[in-house]
Amino acid sequence: MGRFPAPVGLRLMKKNDVVLIAVIVILAFAAFVGVSLYSASASGEGEAVVYLDGEEQGRYPLDQDCSIEIPSGDGKYNRLEIKDGQAAMAEATCPDKVCVKHRPVKKQGESLVCLPNKVVVEIENGGEPEVDGAAR
Amino acid sequence: MAKKTAYLGMMTALAFVLSYLESLLPINVGVPGVKLGLANLVVIVALETIGFKEACALSLVRVLLTAFTFGNPAGMLYSLAGGAFSLLAMAGAKKLNLFSLAGISVLGGVFHNIGQLAAAVLVVETASLVYYLPVLVLSGTAAGVAVGGLAAVLIRHLKGLSQR
To answer: From the CA of A68, how many Å to the nearest CA of chain B?
Structure first.
């Protein structure tokens, strides 16, 4: 076993590597906290906003259970289901099904994305819609 | 020259097989894009033992092969963006000469995810995908440490082989 290399340990890493990893982890946590604070700052009932290829298709309040089919052409579609205040992709014709496996979303800024079909469902809410309603 | 060609061909095949292996082991944590990036192992070894141009070619061929066989062509754009960002970051890090393989590989993993996310934001025109960034950066870091460690061991063995 003489040719076998010594056990892989910290020897593989230089001090710089450790510093780099620490900086990246700290930045990621800072971004995570920022995102969480932003999500928590929103109040009021959320809506699931459906976008196809960047264009808004419709808004659906999270407090009403429903099932929406989102056609994306060529017989492709995604089916969005809103239940118990959460939105989830119940069905999709895309090959990878990443959107279907995604956990249900309900918080401001969370989204369900189906890249092959270019469908995005985003949760939006906050105080602004009420102001809009009053102005109307 | 012929030896280099054979070596590159072998590496491409290896990257292809590793991509396949990884497609058999889906890691599903509820956030799309989290993965180990085993094929990056081969790209790092190529970058380290052959050169930048060859590593680019290898990465490109691997992405195309994977997309048209067991991957899906719709995802190819994201793989290409991720691969390009990752390679540029790793080549840059190597030039700086500050980091060992682990650091280079971490930067590769993190920038792969950043590139993929950037492509996705442009394609679906939804900036809110940035919400995934913290998780993707952390998972890229973890994957980078693992892949970088493996690459260091692999390169040591490869050097032993070529000296025989």
So the answer is: 19
Q: Is A128 on the interface with B (CB under 8 A)?
A: no
Six-digit token string for A101: 């496996």
Interface membership of B72 toward A (CB under 8 Å): yes
Say whether pTM exceeds 0.90: no
The beta-carbon neighbor of A122 closest among B128, B141, B152 is: B128
Per the CB < 8 A criterion, the answer to whether B74 and A94 are in contact is yes
pLDDT, one tens digit per residue, over A87-118 is 999 999 988 788 898 888 888 878 888 888 88
Whether B126 and A50 have beta carbons less than 8 Å apart is answered as: no
Structure-derived torsion over alpha carbons of residues B6, B10, B16, B20, reported in degrees to the nearest 10: 160
Q: Count the residues in chain B.
A: 164
- Other CB atoms within a 10 A radius of the CB of residue B97 amount to 7
The Cα-based distances of A32 to A39, B126, B135 in angstroms read 11, 19, 8
ipTM score of the complex?
0.83
- Torsion on CA atoms B114, B118, B121, B127, rounded to nearest 10: 70
